[in-house]
Design a protein that fits this description.
The complex is a heterodimer of chains A (488) and B (441).
Chain A (H helix, E strand, L loop, with lengths): L2 H14 L4 E2 L2 H5 L15 E3 L4 H14 L3 E4 L16 E4 L6 E5 L4 E4 L5 H8 L4 E2 L12 H7 L6 H4 L6 E7 L5 E4 L11 H5 L8 E8 L1 E2 L3 E9 L2 H13 L6 E6 H11 L9 E9 L1 H17 L4 E5 L2 H12 L1 H4 L6 E4 L9 H15 L3 E6 L4 E8 L6 H18 L18 H4 L2 H14 L41
Parallel strand pairs in A: 2-4, 3-4
Antiparallel strand pairs in A: 1-2, 5-6, 6-10, 7-11, 8-9, 8-10, 12-14, 12-15, 13-14, 13-17, 16-18, 17-18
Helix pairs in contact in A: 1-3, 8-10, 13-14
Chain B lengths: L1 H17 L4 E2 L13 E3 L4 H13 L4 E4 L16 E4 L6 E5 L4 E5 L4 H9 L3 E2 L10 H7 L6 H4 L2 H4 E8 L4 E5 L11 H5 L7 E9 L1 E2 L3 E9 L4 H12 L7 E6 L7 E9 L1 H15 L8 E3 L14 E6 L5 H15 L4 E4 L5 E6 L5 H15 L9 E6 L2 H7 L21 H11 L14
Parallel strand pairs in B: 2-4, 3-4
Antiparallel strand pairs in B: 1-2, 5-6, 6-10, 7-11, 8-9, 8-10, 12-14, 12-15, 13-14, 13-17, 16-18, 16-19, 17-18
Helix pairs in contact in B: 1-2, 8-10, 10-11, 11-12
The chains are: A alpha+beta (488), B alpha+beta (441).
Chain lengths: 488, 441
Amino acid sequence: MLGSIQELVPRMRDICGARNVITDPLELRTYECDGLTAHRCVPALVVLPFSASEVAAVVAACAAAKVPFVARGSGTGLSGGALPRRDGVLIVMSRMRSIIEIDAASRRAVVEPGVTNLAVSKAAAPFGLFYAPDPSSQVVCSVGGNVAENSGGAHCLKNGFTVNHVMGLEIVTPSGELTWLGDGTGVTTGYDLLGAFTGSEGTLGIVTKIVVKLMPVPETVHLILAAYATTSEGGQAVSDIIAAGIVPAAIEMMDALAIEAAEAAVHCNYPAGAGAVLIVELDGPTAEVEAELATVRSICAAAGATEIRAADDPAERASIWAGRKSAFAAVGRISPSFIVQDGVVPRTSLGAVLGKIAALSAETGVRVANVFHAGDGNLHPLVLYDENVPGQTRAAEEVSGRILDACLEHGGSITGEHGVGVDKSKYMPKMFDASDLDTMQLVRCAFDPAGLCNPGKIFPTPRLCGEVPGHHRAVSSGAGQPAVAEIF
Amino acid sequence: MDTERAVVPAARAALADACPSLRDGVAGDAVFGVTPPFVASPASTSEAAALLAAAASFGLAVVPRGAGLGLSWGAPPAACDLVVDLSAMDQVIEHAAGDLVARVQAGVTIGQLASVLAEAGQELALDAPAEATVGGVVAAGTAGPRRFRYGAPRDLLIGLTVVRADGVIAHSGGKVVKNVAGYDLGKLFAGSQGTLGLITEATFRLHPLPTAVAYVTAEFGAAARASAAAAVVAAAGSVLVPSAVELDWPGGAQRALRVGVLLEGTDIGVAERAKQMSDLLGAADSSEAVVSDVAPVRWGQLPSPSIVIRVAFWAGKLTGVLDALAAAGAGADVRPAVSGPAGAGLLYACLDPGTRSDAAATFVRELRERLTSGRGDPRGSVTVLAAAPEVMTACGAYGAPGASGASRASAPEVPGAALMRAVKDQFDPEHRMFPGRLSAI
């Protein structure tokens, strides 16, 4: 262990209690990776604070000792965003898991960061409300982690992402100070730091309290499952639904290989032999949804569906969703290892990019299962390989990279919801030029000039923050106006 | 001052070299009554970049301008050497209808964009004046009644191109609706009022135009204030998915209140939902609800933009907010005209243009006393958006009880103010972009 961290141990024990500071090498290994197991690093020290003031004290101690620190929620992230530092402290937020308040009339909840995503909806359910962002890992993933990653989920097509549902944040800044971002109502005064912070992947500070928006549980929900011979037929149905002016709650697609895996894992009983299944969920006021349902059914049929099923009761819907939500884990049944990609393309380019993925797969012999949020063009190609077969890991990584290239060629993004983390920072220069990355890092320099807060994530090359003049320069002024209220 | 005058010819030459449209400012360009020496209308992002680089080399204070609608809001600039007029950048660069996405130059007007999008049955779901520019609306960060459902500009913005104070061009986001690659500079620039840099292009997510709309309104007498508040809360929390839940309370505490709900959707769906919403709004002490496909008078409009106070709160606390507005009005002897998206937890209180500055400041302080006092977590704010400088000085744009003329050290600050100042220092270290504009920070 590094000398400076060794010196921090007694201080951390003072702050969090001896039982909540982990130094045992075996126990430390528990935290060596998040949901992306390809990247591993054993932290020097793990602390498990119980309160915002403990987090602030831990961060202040790290800042004073110039020791890097990384926050971790439930550890379900898929980009290595919570990958620890060998020379740093890992701050595990899972002990801070109380739902502090639910104000049903205001449709707001105040929660601690370690609360699981689904727990918020469960607590809101008695009031007829729910928390809309629903990443597939919602049973275990934490709201604090969702804020860090700006998590999406199957239903963000209609309801938006985490950033659209966070109304206020209490954070610990990288220098160890507690502050609020936003006034707790979602209305911005000054700069929207609340928005800029959400999705910053733990690099601008640590969330200690979250005000979220709750929404009324939809009056009616309908789910349609349509089977197609090919993904391109399914893709046509998606385009036609959008062109009809309908914004479903979710539109998901799985290809034959993904269906095979899901079937093996959860026996979801999707239509046998389908080359693709399309799942369309409609929700809203009964009076609107009934009409949309009829339209969507006929569009799906016109696009060549071999079978259409409607699921109206919650149990049927849950069984169809089980196949989709288990897809990542299910692929483990048909392949020892796999890479989950998260590229995004404009919806209208889905067919072209899927074709390119199929061609890549045929060319390299690397199998790719496709599960994706078709409504917003967010692909989740699962690139299959066996790390015990020489050369396969490398081949899979290459295919994975070329899939992202294809997404970028079509004007898309390297990540729709999993984040950049350590995993995709090397692709950032393909999407943004040096000036773009430099400008983004101005925000980093404002929050964390010392570069201690989750360093090494998102940006391939850190920016040196340097000294900022910060003086109030008296500019030559044709206006001649006195400097009324100039604060900057 | 002599050295400054000597700089002007050299600055003029450099600016004109960067941007051929450079001209001298005229009376119509005045910002808060002061005519800027230079006005330029760049035709492209690269021209704007060259212009700002030239301005940087002469240390000029820069004020970006769209349609100019919001320039009189907020604090006046501390200096204004160069107005950058975006009106020449008026191209809709791409409308990808199948992707529900549009990429536009900052000078495109809301009305111009709406007509292009309507051809494909789509819209940018923001309520802004037709003559406002896209860049101006993003920079102002304002949204009208439909913010209840669709949010503010930051929620619809998916990509942004800006020119920094030093002339460097930067992009963030992209043209896909789902994208978490890198920091979202769009969030930072939306509502930044031109103080961080110049917005030159924006990409938005779009929505299908509804085939039918219905406005459901109910009137409540002055004595039925609490019932009106309850109707707002019920509508906002209903499963009928309103697009807007507005409260309109003109003319002070002794006057009637109107609750208005906008429903958007299909013909049959909207008709049925309007019926259900009418039942929901109706109360023993309200008028019978009225359904119309035409917006009621004053829908989404501020009665008088001269003194505007924004009150943000948790919607469920609306009764207390209305009580506080009435009490503060009585205490300061003013009659605020109150309206806004109350269902989204937001109201604007406007005072008559003739209101004395001390009365306006007293009103603001009393409101803060009632709504934002206490030491707990923030649950709202009372912000002066527009007023004479004396009012701003007397009560602060953003503040808390009794912060009259208090020094910075003792006055309460916007949450995160220190970080905001750090962001400003990073993006504009010489403080040349609309200096003094965001006095709240």
